[in-house]
Amino acid sequence: MxxxxxxxxxxxxxxxxxxxxxxxxxxxxxHAGRQPGLAVVLVGENPASQVYxxxxxxxxxxTGIYSxxxxxxxxxTTEELLHLVHSLNAREEIDGILVQLPxxxxxxxxxxxxxxxPEKDVDGFHPYNMGLLATSRPGLRPCTPAGVIxxxxxxxxxxxxxxxxxxxxxxxxxxxMALLLLEENATVTVCHSKTPNLPQVCRGADILVAAIGRPSxxxxxxxxxxxxxxxxxxxxxxxxxxxxxxxxPDNLASFxxxxxxxxxxxxxxxxxxxxxxxxxxxxxxxxxTIAMLMRNTIExxxxxxxxx
Length: 308
Ligand code: GUN
Description:
The protein is α/β, with parallel strands linked by helices. The chain is built from twelve helices and eleven strands. It is globular, with a radius of gyration of 20 Å. It binds guanine (GUN).
């Protein structure tokens, strides 16, 4: 493509969504006499999870949401964590419960996620909420794929009648992403590690969504010139040779400075050269997840108190 690609700016869309959340939280306060409430449960010392959780509670404060972070001892058992979730389910002033993943390996994550009351499941991970999504009923939607739809809508990128290819079938991103695109009347293909001729299938996409978790796996041969490319991956690379392969020998200043660099699932140079519009990493899909969590928390609060 000779045209300059449109960069889909996640920070701008995040600010718009946050800007819409604040007056809704204030209206809720006038209606209910309290702020919408979010409880975040963080077990263990995963540094990435600690950063995410800090950002979630900070953003909650900025949007008029009450939040608390609960950090049980890392040796907590599944039974004890279930007890904690049940106690949060029972608290009237808590509208949203988020259990930060991954949980330590000795915890039965499925059991914990199943225990969260669906009406408080602001992650949208509960099978009940997944079922609502699959059957086109209103409900709490998983934040990252819902953020991608907002990004496309607010940039006036048409989805109806378009061919969309999602790479990755995770419960958190790939599967709900496919269902949400279907809801927008796209023709959706879901690819995964067993898909034959992956580049060829991806080249059929008007909208290509990469949610694999492998740095720069999607290269030029996957991208139809003029496609819209959404890169959900956030990977940190620490090998110089890998950085050089991905960014090229003349673009290593940032890597040299820090000794590591964030990279998505799509090769950034190929994406910028071939796509008509794309989400950069960082600053694309990443900022939207937390904004959508705020929106889900307010929506949960409104539903629980009969405001919507
Ligand atoms: N870990 C990484 N992403 C997420 C997310 O969206 N929600 C939760 N609960 N944990 C995560």
